[in-house]
Write a structure and sequence with these properties.
By secondary structure, the protein is α/β, with parallel strands linked by helices. It has helices at residues 14-25, 40-45, 60-69, 86-107, 134-163, 165-168, 202-214, 232-241; strands at 5-9, 29-34, 49-52, 74-77, 111-115, 171-177, 180-181, 188-191, 200-201, 221-227, 230-231. Bound molecules: NADP nicotinamide-adenine-dinucleotide phosphate (NAP). Belongs to the avfA family.
Length: 251
Amino acid sequence: MAASNILLFGGSGKVARHITRQLASAGYTVHSIIRKAEQSASIEALGGKPVVQSIEDSSVDDMAKLMKASNTQAVIWSAGAGAGNPDRTRAVDRDGAIRSMDAAAKAGVKRYIMVSAIDVRDREARPVPEWYDDSDKERSDRVWKAIGPYMDAKLAADRSLVAENGRRGLEWTIVRPTTLSEDAGVGKIEAGKVRTTEKISREDVAAVVAECLKRDGTKGMAIDCVGGSTPIADAIARAVEEKADAFEGRY
Ligand SMILES: NC(=O)c1ccc[n+]([C@@H]2O[C@H](COP(=O)([O-])OP(=O)(O)OC[C@H]3O[C@@H](n4cnc5c(N)ncnc54)[C@H](OP(=O)(O)O)[C@@H]3O)[C@@H](O)[C@H]2O)c1
């Protein structure tokens, strides 16, 4: 049976709110983890079930208990502390995310979808993606120079999700959007081994997450997504068919 009971970390975030609204209206139950009680009413208005619990203060056991109590069938991670405070970024985007993976394994939850970022990769030891052109390389240099600790935290979390899955046995997918916009979703993107520079709206990223949840072929794949002109379901189907995993061999 497809997962219908979701635990969403970072529930009050901008992408997460779109995820909550889209999944709730499609019939999923979305348990939305937030850290401020005053955010609860707005999550309920989207159709989510708010759970007030700070990620930084939650152990693996705390998270696993939450998953068991809410009968979680799939975890979605869309939390992040931003790039302004590297210590908090490491505490949330790296350590909190890794604890949530361990918690999923402990609670017996298989499906795990991570919202990460495009161009998260080991730039020291691995080659530049061969499909990058000069503008992608320029973007990569600029982003890593500006927010290196944030990218490193994402890399550590994503590497753990993929490389340490032998002990967890999760059915993971990593969704890797490029720079996000607040524009309304258009339902069209490009996905897979794509050029990195075309912004994508948060609403469309949420639709990519929803599509991955439905599509078993995305299990075990990291999928880059950017603005484009291909309907989301088609773009994801093509990335799956072509096994276009932009993280493979780069961590
Ligand atoms: N900005 C970009 O261009 C970009 C590009 C690619 C990928 N991403 C990634 O995409 C994801 C979603 O982005 P977004 O725009 O939706 O980010 P966002 O609006 O900043 O959402 C992140 C959420 O994480 C929550 N959070 C942080 N620390 C927490 C804690 N200790 N306990 C519980 N929740 C906590 C925040 O809660 P509060 O509301 O309480 O602060 C916030 O609501 C993030 O992981 C981001 O790094 C961003």
